[in-house]
Amino acid sequence: MGAPRAHARRSAVALLLAPLVACSSPELDGAAFSCESNADCLAGRICGGGGSARVCMPASEAPIEIGMTGPFRGPSRDLGIEMRRGILAQFERVNEQGGVFGRRLELSSMNDDYDPDQALESVKELLDIEELAEGDSPDVRGPGSVFALLGSIGTPTTLATAPIANRNGVVVFSPFTGAHRYLRDGTLAPSVYNFRPGYFEETELIVDYMARHRQPRIISDPPADSYTRLLVFAQNDSYGDAGYTGVVEAYNRLGPLPQPDPSRPNPSIARVTYEREDMDSVEPAIAQAREFLLGVLGDGTASRSVGIVMIDTWQPGN
Fold it and tell me: What percent of the chain has pLDDT over 70?
């Protein structure tokens, strides 16, 4: 009788252990675990998904998140809207073809009203900066940072945002600006990759056209007093300053101006300005330009070639 009872006890223990063993090795392949950073995920997985519902997913499936900041309202809104439209169209084409090594491209765009301070706050959010570091050290960042910044609009805004992206090693690709200061200095901004030409190259071609190609010539050879027939209509900020400097330096290469330094008062080449995103300031600038033209034409009996170089955004120039 003892042997059968012992056998029964062993069978009961085996039956109890069977479900325990089965529960100790659950199937986890399809499970999605929440996370705050890549450190919360197993090898081969990253924390992704965006927003508050971030989960561990295979690295090959996580989207590549790209950031953009620009004006999506106000006088310069068409610059931002059309740039974003073009980026999204290209992203859609790439994603339809399988993405980048199987990963989809996604764009996170933020309005900055073409304002440097607002642009800086937008980029801090796009880079998920939690605490600013001292000096040039990388900042403390959360897990929600974009991979790169693409097509951000404007000279004053990009000059304000590129340094914080650069010190965090985030690529700034093809910003919509031709500024040379900082943005085209590979030693200061190694993370900035420019696609368009700089303002100095553009203004060099403008001055060259007026001196060598346009008929009748606006700038004579030698230039003599040709500068008195030039006017720069510019935005009153770093964008306008960069373009105006390009015009002055290009002219100086043809013949020295009486006052060759564009940063000093009373420049040889006349300049009128309007304020960024302030359409009320455009009409007074136009009135100043009209006075300049009347002064050049004198009594109107002579025909003179005059050059007006526009360093403006879309709406003020139209």
Answer: 88
